[in-house]
Each structure stands twice: as C-alpha cells, then as structure tokens.
C-alpha cells in the first residue's frame, strides 16, 4: 500500500468518525435548543393563564387548537410543575401526535386545578430533520472534497518523492551521472534529495576507485605471470633436470596457467558488472555455434562424444565478444563435464537455447551451480565459467536455468523474441 493511500484512508476514516460523533452531538444540541424554545412558548402561555386567573378569579376557556391544547382538571393536591413528552389523540386528524406538555397547579374560585398546556412537536421535528439533512449533505460534500484533495493534491505533493525513487531505480554506475535534483520548495524532500545526492556521489567515487583498482591489479598481475611462465618454459627445456624436478616444474606451470585464467575471468566479470560492453550488434547464434563446434572438434573427438544439433535461424542484439564468451563457456562446460562416449545436444530455437550433456549427478547443491567458484571435486576449471554465463544473461535479461533428469544435465537460456 502506498504511503499517501494509507494516509488518505486514515485521514478519511478519522474525519468520518469525527463528523459522525460531531453530528450525533450536534443533533442532540439542536434538539435541546428547539425543545427549549417550545418550553419558552409553554411558559408564556402559563404566565397568561395565571395572569388571567389573578385578574378574574376564574379559569379561561379550554382550547383544543391544532397548534395548542389547554385543559384544566380538578385536583385534590397541587401537582408538581413539570415538562413532559406525551402522545395524545388529535381530534382534528384522528391520529396520535407527539406533544410537549407543561403541567402546573392553578387555583380559581376556591377550587384547585391541574392546568395542562401542550403544543405539538411536529414542526420542531420537521425543522430538526431539515437541519440534519442539510448537515448530512454538507458532511458528504466535505468528505468528497477531502477525498479528491487527497487523491489529487497529495499525489502532486508526493510526486517529487516518486521522481527521486524512480531516479534511484534507474541509477547506473557505468553512466557516471548523478541523480537529477529539482527544487520542490519542501524541506523534507530537499533533505532527501541532498542525502541521495551525497550517497550516489560517494558510490560513484568508490566505484571509480574499485574499477581502477581492478584494472590496475589485473594489468600488473599479467606482467609477473608472463615472466614466471616464460622462466618456467626455459627451465622445463633444460636437459640437466631430473624427472622429479620436471614434475614439480610442470605442477608450477599448471598452477601459473590456472592463476592467469582466473585473473582473466575475474577481470571479465568485473567488466561485465561495470557494463563496459555496452556496444551491441545483431549476433547470429547459429553460425557462431557451428564455428565453435569446429574449434572443439579435437576435444569432442578425444571424449568420443556424439553431437546432435538442431539450429534455427535467429539473431540477438548483444555485444559480439560477450556472445562468443557465452557460447564458449557453455560448450566447454558441456564437453568437460560429459562422460566418455556420451552425448552432447544443442538446440537453438526462436525463444531459447538449450545445451544438454550426459554426466553424473552434481556433488553440490544445484542451486549454487551459477555461483562463483562452484565446481565439482574433479574439475580443473576456475569455477567461474558458469558465473560468467549468468552475469552475461543478467546483463541482457536472459532467463537462465539448470535442470538434471535421467543423467542429462541441461542449461536453458530463454531468449527475448
């Protein structure tokens, strides 16, 4: 749930509760005021009756009008003066009506009476109903205005935040461009943009330091590795060395070769991560696969592998060098981890490239097969071949997956149509 949506929901719910409670209180206050006005009217009528009795020592004539009823009943003891709500039959309409009644004692001609003055509450209730209808309409109008304000105004207010968020999503280290910052006039967004700007600036600076370090370290390592390799070549050719020394030199020679490959693979991974292969061209995969198979004829023949290829025409838009590395690593992996006399199956379709090979089950968790330095116990590789494949696929949003069924290892790359 978005923040402004949650804020709007809480704000509207709180407003509804406040207005609902306020409306209930408002209803009782208005009703109390209107009843008080009825009571004042009854008090005026009471004063007129008492004044009439004092002046003439007799009761006025009872009244039974639509808007007022006056009755006198003989009493033995004086009644307590009080206001009350009653229901009485309206002889004019032949139906019960609600009245506000005032009872008070009055003495005339030596006789004690209970005077009853009543006035109907219909007009008061009608007025109260109209007031509440108008109030309800105003509340609905207020809630509608509040809802629209939250939907439109708050969205505009929060737009700089979403712009900053989108800028963070699209931030790319290889572009060397800081996030765009615009003046919103809102202090909190200014602080957010300032913090993001400082953070991305530091990230760019650290990225450049790491990138230069990786490039320089790789470059500097190549020179001593080349020197060691050349010296080992000279030592191996020395006729005075014994078989024991030759085996040790051969082990050193192989270790230097693996170290050189490892250095090149790590450098390649770093360059891919840094998006240093941004240039892209249409690459036809079928001819490239056929070319690779010609290059690996000796390796395939040495393992006595049976190769089956089904290649459709198609091309991808990617860096040609990375396409070559991708196919090279996949095919080397399928050949190296195959069994002697096994099968190698290559299927290129419009939406996928599938490379399958026979071989024993993995000795590690298949989930980690594309992780760096993951390799079998008898593998002579660096453990970075499939990690490079995954990094290339991630760079171009190719869907990479691995499966193993019936002694068949399969690596599938989903290609964009």
Write up what this structure looks like.
There is one protein chain. It is rod-shaped and about 160 Å long. β4 and β5 form a beta hairpin. The protein folds into 3 domains: 3-137, no CATH class; 187-273, Helix Hairpins (Orthogonal Bundle), CATH 1.10.287; 281-414, Heat Shock Protein 90 (2-Layer Sandwich). The chain is built from 8 helices and 12 strands. The protein is an alpha+beta fold and 417 residues long. Strands 1-2-5-4-3 form a 5-stranded antiparallel beta sheet. A 5-stranded mixed beta sheet has the order 7-9-10-12-11. A two-stranded antiparallel sheet has the order 6-8.
Keyword list:
417 residues; alpha+beta; Helix Hairpins; Heat Shock Protein 90; five-stranded antiparallel β-sheet; five-stranded mixed β-sheet; 8 helices
In summary, what is this structure?
The protein has 417 residues and is of the alpha+beta class.
Low-confidence stretches: none
Mean pLDDT: 82
Net shape: rod-shaped
Structural class: alpha+beta
Portion in beta strands: 15-25%
Write the layout of secondary structure elements.
Layout: H1 3-56, E1 63-64, E2 69-74, E3 82-90, E4 95-108, E5 111-120, H2 122-169, H3 187-236, H4 243-273, E6 281-284, H5 285-295, H6 297-302, E7 306-311, E8 315-318, H7 320-336, E9 343-348, E10 352-358, H8 385-395, E11 399-405, E12 408-414
Parallel strand pairs: 7-9
Antiparallel strand pairs: 1-2, 2-5, 3-4, 4-5, 6-8, 9-10, 10-12, 11-12
Helix pairs in contact: 1-2, 2-3, 3-4, 4-8, 5-7, 7-8
